[in-house]
Amino acid sequence: MNTPETLDFIVVGAGISGINTSYRLQTELPRAKFVVFENRHSVGGTWDLFRYPGVRSDTDLYMYGFTWHPWPYPKAIGQGSQIKQYLETCVAEHNLGRYIRFGHKVVSMSWSSKSAQWTVAVSHDGVVDEYKARFVILGTGYYDYDTPRQAHIPGIENFQGQVIHPQFWPENFDYTGRDIAVVGSGATAITLVPTLAQKAGRVTMVQRSPSYILTVPDDDTSPAWMHPFLRIWSTLYSWFVILFCRYFPTAAQSYLLNKTRPQLPESMGIEPHFMPRYFPWEQRLCWAPAGDFYQALHKPGTSIVTGKIKRVTEKTIEMDNGQVVETDVIVLATGLRTLLGGKIDIRVDGEKMDWAGRLIWNFSMIQDIPNMMIVMAYTNIPWTINADISMNRFFRVLKNMQKRGARTVVPRAPKDSPMKTEPFSHLTSTFYTEVEDRMPKYGTAGPWKRKENVPIDYINARWGDTTTGLEFHP
Q1: Residue 356 needs a FRET pair 20 to 30 A away by CA distance; which of 180, 318, 407, 441 works?
Q2: Is 101 found in the same domain as 176?
Q3: Comparing C-alpha atoms, which of 254, 241, 312, 325 is closest to residue 281?
Q4: Backbone φ and ψ of 11, nearest 5°
């Protein structure tokens, strides 16, 4: 170990969260000394990792883009390569690259109450160095970059063709003329099917249960100066849609199904392929730009099979209902493995931190963990919205520390409180529910309550109470 470099802030991750955090630290605290450690060799996080055919955003980029660098392109739904280029441009034009250290993997973080500092161990080229910092900001996302979700599919080990996880799509994989089965019905599957159908021989989407698929416009002719206003409009519109789905679920379901029917081939009805078991926004809506998914269904080689997989053989997928799907390639678009903190070993005064059951303070700090912020996102509004709201709140916490002469701030849950808890996500998607026992929770009152009202959350972060639930120590 070398003599530790001492910093004010350490940011982990150079994806959406890390880039936004860097810009805000540079702008609000120009004298602060900070670095961004990124395990990969390029910026972008998700958009650097995902390379499967057709990869794109599942929300509009007016909301997803940064307020300080509006989305500049005429297409509101961005392709993965376009989003990656946008993020690289943001870093270059705002001189953020000077803070980022690529190929640096944060292995562990250890807090000392005595020194009021984090000691962070970072691996780079096989060497582990230590760094000291007052604060650590985790911009590590919400899923495992190394291991995809392992869905239980009977007999998958018997398949003699190629099995692909979209998270690790093979470079230069030529699927021209191949028969492909896409297992899954979420955003990844809805993106893959129309793209694969352009060159593949046959494409079959094998789904256990359907999702709601909403056709959205694929382009926009608004001038660039209007994009900041479109961000506000898109955010408010999405919020109202979510409220409508929550309070009028039957009407929302009828609306979506009525929009779906006329886009289907004559031979295909709503049942069973487009009738989800849940109401809209109990799980995420899937987007089909310009209805590309429905258009693909009109091609002779594209089809859907709905039901439970009985087993996979050497060359087929057999369903419980007797249907058989012959295929050369199986693509497992079955979701992501949910994970917080990027597998970092986090300890406080020698005690290992477990995420499970800890309360979340104001959507940005974790119960009993000092001087650490984690950037999280709404489940139904783009990631960047809360990334920015969280930074507003964070700077106000720092100002409160300065006023009090405090070196340490730590969220503390009220003792002997009858307050109930709520799960990490209110969505019923399997990749959330299956890890619920390993995730932090929300309370039902005060700063521990789930944040899901964008306008109110923004106001509270800028001008509301940012001291309740926190302990300040000199």
Answers
A1: 407
A2: no
A3: 241
A4: -105, 130
Give the total number of structural domains in the chain: 2
Give one word for 95, left, alpha or beta, with left for phi > 0 and alpha for psi -120 to 50.
Answer: left
For 355, the token pair is 């995420």
Token pair in block for residue 178: 């191949």
- Please report the sign of the dihedral spanned by the C-alpha atoms of residue 233, residue 239, residue 240, residue 244: positive
| Res 362 pLDDT > 90 | yes
Q: Point out the domain boundary residue: 332, 348, 363.
A: 332
Pair of tokens at residue 166: 């979209």
Q: In which element (H, E) is residue 49 found?
A: helix 46-49
Distance, in Å, from the CA atom of 79 to the CA atom of 103, rounded to the nearest integer, reads 25
User: Which two tokens mark 227?
Assistant: 């994009």
Strands 421-422 and 442-443: antiparallel
Cα(421)–Cα(250) distance, integer angstroms: 28
Cα-to-chain-centroid distance, residue 62: 17
Residues 6+ apart with CB under 8 A from 194: 54, 288, 292, 293, 295, 296
Which residue, among 309, 335, 312, 331, has the nearest Cα to 320 in the 3D structure? 309
pLDDT value of position 425: 81
Tokens representing 156? 């998958």
* CATH number, domain with residue 197: 3.50.50.60
User: For position 158, what pLDDT does the model report?
Assistant: 95
Q: Left (φ > 0), alpha (ψ -120 to 50) or beta: where does 177 sit?
A: left
d(CA 150, CA 163): 12
> Between these two residues, 353 and 427, which has the higher pLDDT value?
353
Q: Where do we find the tokens 């390029």? A: 42
**Local confidence band at 2 (pLDDT 50, 70, 90 cut-offs):** low
Instruction: Write the pLDDT tens digit of every residue in 386-419.
Output: 999 999 999 999 999 999 999 999 999 888 777 8
Query: What are the backbone angles phi and psi of residue 115, rounded to the nearest 5°?
Result: -95, -10
Residues 184, 131: one domain?
A: no
Q: Please write the tens of the pLDDT for every residue from 83-131.
A: 999 999 999 999 999 999 999 999 999 999 999 999 999 999 999 999 9
Q: Are residues 164 and 288 in the same domain?
A: yes
Q: E-assigned strands of 263-371?
A: 286-289, 302-306, 309-312, 316-319, 324-326, 329-332, 345-348, 351-352, 360-361, 365-366
Cα–Cα–Cα angle for 332, 336, 338, nearest 5°?
155
Q: In this predicted structure, what is the pLDDT of residue 148? A: 87
Residue 1 is predicted with a pLDDT of 53
Q: pTM of this prediction?
A: 0.94
User: Would you state the structure tokens that stand for residue 121, as one six-digit string?
Assistant: 């161990």
Q: What is the pLDDT of residues 216-237, one digit of tens each?
A: 988 776 777 787 888 888 888 8
